[in-house]
Design a protein that fits this description.
348 residues, alpha/beta, 7-stranded mixed sheet, 3-stranded antiparallel sheet
């Protein structure tokens, strides 16, 4: 309704490059109210989705030769965005045995004199892993020892969680890192507004200023109408999120249990997001003509009529990512098809 009103009132011209005053105020209020983080207007940049915010950040601060620490399994865009800025990703591998979360020792071991940035993403796409306060505190102890490192905290799945624990990010446990941390978020996931394309970054004014320059010479402002819609979302009643999470939590259990009952599949389960990241390695080992997760993706398309994203895309071969942001009927049918395709193949 807010967006329709904006169109009818002719709010369809350029806005300030870094976003409207109204939306920036709504973002500052949200960060204060929900995250206990305080920012001024020169510390916030509104962009065309959280993806754009992350891209602007990497373009603004990375140089050729720099390294970016990326815990795997990672959201597919981080390493490639680093590459586009001339930098390189240093991947920290984790598996289900460590709940897909990096340890302080692994973080310390990945940092060298070329490391410029560390990316944290909790809840995580693709694993659904959520770092606890204690785990973040232990990572912060390492980050404290490297004062030149920047930290990117991708909080886009902040509101999509099933554990009942309050959301925490690195700044909640280590406020002293604020002078070198950029918080990245947006309305895509929490408000189911993926197509509106509004994300934002909040951080030190000098970094936000540099990111604004990048944006100014590429896209300029995000769509004026979408900014009005995003401000209405952030300022509106968030109670629907509770129902939304209950639904995701119940679909998650349904999909997790169905996967655990399949031959050749192991599944840890998620604490948040609408993804689950089962291990199909045993199935890959047993299926004739299938040698890796990419070939398994093709095999499942052909034999089960289901599209799963191979774990290799996320730096985790042998796993597959499933999204449960679809109806229970579709999910039930999909789980049944995958199970029966595997059982048929193993019986043959
Ligand atoms: N960060 C993560 C971890 C994501 O999974 C996504 C979307 O898939 C994004 C950022 C980008 O979000 P947006 O749609 O706001 O650009």
């Amino acid at each position: 309704a807010a967006a329709i009103r904006a169109i009818e009132e002719g709010f369809t011209k350029y806005t300030a490059v870094d976003g409207t005053a109204e939306l920036k105020r709504a973002i500052i209020d949200k960060l204060h109210r929900e995250n206990a983080l305080d920012y001024s207007v020169d510390q916030v940049l509104v962009s065309v989705g959280c993806k754009h915010s992350i891209y602007n950040l990497m373009q603004a601060v990375l140089n050729p030769g720099d390294e970016v620490v990326v815990p795997a399994p990672f959201w597919v865009s981080y390493p490639d965005m680093a590459k586009l800025a001339g930098a390189e990703a240093t991947i920290i591998r984790t598996g289900a045995e460590q709940s897909f979360k990096i340890s302080r020792e692994q973080l310390r071991g990945a940092i060298n004199e070329r490391t410029r940035m560390v990316i944290l993403n909790s809840p995580s796409n693709p694993t659904g892993a959520v770092y606890s306060r204690e785990e973040l505190t232990s990572l912060a102890a390492v980050l404290n020892d490297f004062p030149d490192l920047l930290i990117a905290s991708d909080d886009i799945y902040e509101h999509v969680r099933f554990t009942g624990q309050p959301f925490v990010n690195i700044l909640n446990v280590a406020p002293q890192l604020a002078e070198r941390t950029v918080v990245l978020n947006g309305v895509s996931k929490s408000y189911a507004m993926t197509g509106w394309r509004i994300g934002y970054a909040a951080g030190p004014a000098h970094i936000i200023k540099a990111m604004t320059k990048v944006q100014s010479q590429s896209t300029s402002n995000p769509t004026s109408i979408s900014q009005v819609a995003a401000a209405a979302a952030l300022a509106g009643d968030p109670s629907f999120m509770h129902r939304q999470n209950e639904e995701f939590a119940s679909r998650h259990l349904m999909v997790r249990d169905a996967l655990r009952a399949m031959p050749g599949v192991e599944c840890l389960g998620s604490d948040g997001t609408f993804y689950i990241f089962p291990n199909f390695q045993q199935a890959i080992d047993r299926l004739p003509g299938v040698d890796n997760d990419i070939e398994l993706g093709e095999w499942l398309l052909e034999h089960a009529g289901c599209a799963l994203v191979p774990g290799s895309a996320f730096g985790a071969p042998g796993y597959m990512r499933i999204s449960f942001a679809t109806s229970r009927e579709v999910l039930t049918a999909a789980m049944e098809r995958i199970r029966s395709a595997l059982e048929r193949a193993f019986a043959a």
